[in-house]
Amino acid sequence: MKTEAAPSHGPGASLSALTTRAEGLLASIPQALPLLALRFALAIPFFKSGLTKWDGFLTLSPGARFLFEQEFKFHVFGSEIPYPFPLAMATAAGIGELILPILLILGLATRFAALGLLVMTAIIQLTIPDGWANFHLPWAAMALALVVFGGGRIAIDPLVMPGRN
How does pLDDT run across 77-97, given as a tens digit for each residue? Predict the structure, then answer.
């Protein structure tokens, strides 16, 4: 099989050189910047949701109580299963939705915070199956990227655990 080399002159060469240069510039963006952006993008919707679950210090809002006791159900194999221990689950969700995003923003225990939000996303997906394309899939992708790559250099993690990001 014979492959053709890129032309060394003319419009093809200019486009190839420009593409190579642009790709080099994009590749030079520090990995820490997109990881920081991912941490914020994932943290914000969960933190905002967590704020709605409280009506004072460790007092669940009436809305959260109603949703977890009456509305939310697991959709599994065509069945709707009520949440077990709905108030305990509402409390855990409310605490997780506040603490895990704060850890993400700080870049502290980033992989574990992202893993916690990934698990929460799976539970949310089972509760609201129609949200997969608009919300759950992007959240899961962001969380998974942070689980795999960590929080980056712009985080507390490298200070606490040198040699890791």
Answer: 999 999 999 999 999 999 999
Report the greatest alpha carbon distance in the chain: 72
- The rounded distance, in Å, linking the Cα atoms of 69 and 157 is 38
String of DSSP letters for 21-54: HHHHHHHTS-THHHHHHHHHHHHHHHHHHHHHTB
pTM of the model: 0.85
CB-based contacts of 68, cutoff 8 Å, min separation 6: 83, 86, 87, 89, 90, 93
Amino acid symbol at 91: T
Give the count of beta carbons closer than 10 Å to the beta carbon of residue 31: 13
- Looking up tokens 């993008």 gives 41
